[in-house]
Amino acid sequence: MKRFAIFAFGACSVVVFVGCAGDLSNPGDFTDGGTAPKSAKMILADSCGVATCHDDITKTAELDLLSPNVEDRVVNKNSIGLGCESSILVVAGEPDSSYLLDKVLGSVGICESQMPLLDTLPDSDIDILRDWISGLGGSGVGIPDGG
Question: Is the pTM of this model over 0.70?
């Protein structure tokens, strides 16, 4: 039994001292660097769905960008901004026709201010929103393929 205990202790020691493939100077060996890929929903929640803005309680401009199923509240829905009521928040598959993206970009002709109010989104986040809107349209389901 004593031999087994000595063997087990030795084996555990080897694992502890040799088992790591990297060291703390190479954090990439241990994780993905601590950043998960961003999604459009994360960007909307973190940048727009904050308290007193487009969260699930305040719903500024009657818009909740925080709660799940945000697509249901923005796709083919009209803006309520005075003078922009005919603008569609998100036109599925068409980011350049989507008023939400115009607001984020500060495009000419938007009602009121560019969003988010206190900061502009980085280009990488805008690209993610653009890709998300593009991906919402035309999956090809139910469209005849001609034969």
Answer: no
